[in-house]
Amino acid sequence: MLVELRDIQKKYGNAEVLKGINLNIEAGQNHVIQGASGSGKSTLLYILGSLERPDAGSVFLEGRDTTKLNDEQLSELRNRFIGFVFQFHFLLPSMNCLQNTLLPAKIAGIKETEVKKRIQKYAEMLSISHCLSKYPYQISGGEQQRVNIIRAISLNPKLILCDEPTGNLDTKNTAIVISLLKNLASEIESTLVVVTHDNSVAESFEHKITIEDGQIIG
Amino acid sequence: MTKLPLISLFQIILDKKSALRFLIGTIFSLAFSIAVILSTIGLMDGYSVSLKRALAQSNGDLKLKARNGFYSLEGIEDKLNQDKTVEISSHILQIEAFALANKQSKGVLVKGIEPKSFRQVTGLNVPLRKNFNDMEGVIVGVQFAKKFDLKIGDNVVLAFNSKKARELGSASLVQFEIQGILRHGIFEKDMRFMYMHREKLQKILDLRNFTVNEGLIKVVDGLSLEETQRSLQKKYDRDFFVSTYWAEHEVLLDAVEIERDTISIALQLIVLVSVINIIAFMVFISEIKSQDIFMLRALGLSLKSFKKFWYCMLSCIWIVSCVFSVLLIFILDKGILQMSIFQLPGDIYKLSQLNILLKIDDYLLVFGLSLIWVFTVGFITIKRMSSKSLLSGLREEFS
After folding, report:
1. CA A51/CA B298 separation, integer angstroms
2. pLDDT score, position B238
3. Which residue of A58, A180, B230, B269 has the fewest CB atoms within a 10 Å radius of its CB?
4. Could you count the other beta carbons within 10 Å of the beta carbon of residue B395?
């Protein structure tokens, strides 16, 4: 089992956002988490990605309880094990796209030569090789999102977490991005978990998790 | 575990011109505050040291005064010179007189000296000619010469209150040739002191050859002046007062020291203001670079690395400010203090010019205190900045 959530609870003030979530995700499977706005789907994703700690319950990633790890260990886990794709493909404006995609490697202290080769390969797959030497403001929104995806998978993470990755894109680009994510996840043998409120996106996934009022209903 | 080089983090955080400008301003304000405190301390230390040095130049290390005013050289000179703590002594005869020149007059202190021993004790070379009987010669101070518009070779008349003159109900008027102009480094001395051969003055005053009224002592190198003064005072307590060369200005020197300490404490307020600038800089950076910071943290930058970055940034600000403050002090010392507008009224401040004199201790104290300020305030600010959870930061920045 790659991911195992046991009785996850989370409160913000008096609002109970997650009410005892239990979830298992097998390695290599692609999952979509869907639900209405405020249902707790993003919170669940962030807890899964160790960006947030649950108030109660345990999160096991490859059998390791992340709730017992300190900030240093969690940071390492995020860097090496998980790749994040956010709705807003935030790329650092002071760096060109290649440098942006190399950031996880720099943080990890990994030799950049190998990673660079991999990035160039992914860039070719996503048809954005010409963008790598450019700065983020010099390329289109769709291209920026693809650079963002390459950054997320540059270290071949075992888990790719995407929070509304197509929220900012039109229908045509939405289909392209989801397809690219699936292909890349399959290429690097990663597990893909996507949060979305878009039914058309959810429809394309085999494994669906529907969340409502802080509980998994299906 | 984060291996992101700090230099890369600095590049990311400071990529905007406004951040760089703010940083330069912050460094400048801290440097300026440190420089203000250091120059205040340095000016006051410089004043004390220059005054002491100038006093020593015409006084030797210790001064000897007879309880009865005058004393005879016989016996005491040899006795002092044989003392283990005394390197050499010189005994002088000094008396108040009136100087008349170029239709002006002024009260002066005439010192009858024996030039060789006087130079050995005080280090002051008084260029009196050896053959003093040929022509009555005096050496005057530089300020006196300036005020009376005198130069070497000009004449000055001195009016003495000698015993013979007193009997006649008048004063002894003697004309002297100015054989040299001397700089003591203290305005008052440069204005009032005149030197002539001791035997000559004794003759004018109708005093015996061995009569003097002040002894100047040079202490053996390495000995504490205060301790030697106490030991000699004990030995010669019955007939003499022994004092250190700065004794007559002791109250002034103590006042300067107290003032220096008080002002240094008060000036900490300036450091506080510049430290507030540092907080403002940190808040500014965390505002404009919030997205970058939270994104880097999501990508695996640990809180520890984030804190390390800020502590490095604070250390850099502090180090550069310290270096810059030393430069500012150098400019102040070499430049501004040489400008005529900053020349001091010497009759009030004793010395005609000031300089900044700083010891390693002064630097350590001021730099150390500023470091404590910077890191205390930095610690609190960093703690507040890192208390924001990663998720709430991401949501705020990317929603």
Report:
1. 7
2. 82
3. B269
4. 17
Q: Which of B3, B292, B391 sits opposite A107 (nearest CB)?
A: B3
Q: Which residues of B touch A109 (CB under 8 A)?
A: 1-4
B5 and chain A in contact, CB less than 8 A: yes
What is the model's pLDDT at position B140?
Answer: 93
B3 touches chain A (CB under 8 A): yes
Residues of A in contact with B302 (CB under 8 A): 71-72, 74-76
CA–CA separation, B219 vs B223, rounded Å? Answer: 7
Q: Are A4 and A191 in contact (CB under 8 A)?
A: no
Say if residues A120 and A129 touch (Cβ distance below 8 Å).
Answer: yes
Q: What is the mean pLDDT of residues B223-246?
A: 88
Q: What is the arithmetic mean of pLDDT over B150-168?
A: 81
DSSP β-bridge partners for residue B182 = B141
CA-CA distance, B192 to B172, in Å (whole number)? Answer: 19
Write the DSSP string, B94-119.
Answer: EEEEEEEETTEEEEEEEEEE-HHHHH
The answer to whether A86 contacts B12, with C-beta atoms less than 8 Å apart, is no
Decide if A5 contacts A57 (C-beta within 8 A): yes
In whole numbers, what is the pLDDT of chain B averaged over residues?
A: 84
Closest chain A CA to residue B14: A94
B398 vs A79, A88, A151: nearest CB? A88
B234-243 pLDDT tens trace: 988 888 899 9
Q: What's at B290, amino acid-wise?
A: S
* Rounded CA separation B118/B128 (Å): 12
Report the run of H or E that residue A72 belongs to, with start and end. helix A71-81
Separation in Å, CA of B290 to nearest CA in chain A: 11
Phi first, then psi: give them for residue A213, nearest 5 degrees: 55, 40
Q: Which residues of chain A have pLDDT under 50?
A: none
Contact residues for B75 (Cβ-Cβ < 8 A; gap 6+): none
pLDDT tens sequence across A109-152: 888 888 999 999 989 988 899 999 999 999 988 888 889 999 99
**What residue spans of chain B are helical by DSSP H?**
6-13, 17-59, 76-82, 115-122, 142-147, 163-168, 187-192, 198-204, 225-235, 250-266, 268-288, 290-298, 303-334, 346-349, 360-386, 390-398
B-chain residues near A93 (CB < 8 A):
15
Q: In terms of C-beta density within 10 A (0-12 exposed, 13-18 middle, 19 or more buried), how is residue B377 classed?
A: middle
Q: Give B69's DSSP letter.
A: B
Residue position matching structure tokens 């017992």: A68
| DSSP string over A77-123 | HHHHHEEEE-SS----TTS-HHHHHHHHHHHHT--HHHHHHHHHHHH
Give the integer Cα–Cα distance in Å for A147 and B374.
40
Distances (CA, A) of B311 to B59, B359, B376: 53, 28, 11
Percent of chain B exceeding pLDDT 90 equals 23
Instruction: Give A87's contacts in chain B (Cβ within 8 Å).
Output: 398
